[in-house]
Amino acid sequence: MVFRKAELSELEEIIALFGRAAADLKSRDIDQWDEHYPNWEILQGDIHKGEMFVGVDTAGQVVSAFVLNQEADEAYQNGSWQYPEAVYRVAHRLCVDPRCQGSGIGRETMLQMEKLAAEYGAQTVRLDVFSQNLRAFHLYEKLGYQTVGFAVWRKGKFFLMEKRLRGDK
Fold first, then answer.
1. Are 65 and 71 contacting, i.e. CB atoms less than 8 angstroms apart?
2. CA geometry: angle at 169 spanning 144 and 165, to 5°?
3. Pair 144, 107: CB distance under 8 Å
4. Following DSSP, what letter does each residue of 35-100 receive, concatenated?
5. Beta bridge partners of 162
6. What is the pLDDT, as a whole number, of residue 156?
7. Span 140-160, pLDDT tens digits
8. CB 130 within 8 A of CB 33
9. What is the pLDDT of residue 133?
10. Where does residue 158 rank: exposed (0-12), middle (13-18), buried (19+ CB within 10 A)?
């Protein structure tokens, strides 16, 4: 699999990927994503800002996506961050094609995201995960993310998580 910045020409394919993921979540009674979030405007903005990355399989299909930046919602202040002075990046909208789930692509995507964060000089990665999305929560835990608090948004409770990548603090 190859990871690279998403291209605007892939927007429809990316929207379809998020649609399949939202339908899969809903089929498992996880009401996380819908027509309001993430929507076309948000995903297009991610691409325009150069913050969305995609995982492309050997057939050339986009099978995963994530956003990496330094934007943290105000509710991130609820976190008892273990490394408050560390340089960090925030992971948003991690999405794996449900047709590929269970194949290790989610783990591979997360590891690539962490590598990219480190290349940007980050010492830690911060993220949030919907409390009902236990599959994602357990993946993050297995990769060494620690729960540092929670936030409540439109859909309910989200756990705030952090992982140290490198550095002395």
1. no
2. 35
3. no
4. SSTT-HHHHHHHHHTT-EEEEE-TTS-EEEEEEEES---GGGGG---S-TTS-EEEEEEEEE-GGG
5. 126, 146
6. 83
7. 999 999 999 999 988 789 999
8. no
9. 93
10. buried
Reduce the DSSP state of residue 163 to 3 states and report it.
strand
Domains of the chain: 2-164 (3.40.630.30)
> Where do runs of H (alpha helix) occur along 5-84?
11-27, 40-48
User: Quick check: 67 and 52 in contact, CB under 8 A?
Assistant: yes
pTM above 0.85, yes or no: yes
Give one word for 101, left, alpha or beta, with left for phi > 0 and alpha for psi -120 to 50. beta
Q: Which residues, 6+ apart, have CB-to-CB distance to 168 below 8 Å?
A: none
- 105: Cβ–Cβ under 8 A, 6 or more apart, which residues? 1, 55, 63, 64, 96, 97
Q: How confident is the model at residue 31 (pLDDT cuts 50, 70, 90)?
A: confident
Q: How far apart are CA 33 and CA 26, in angstroms?
A: 8
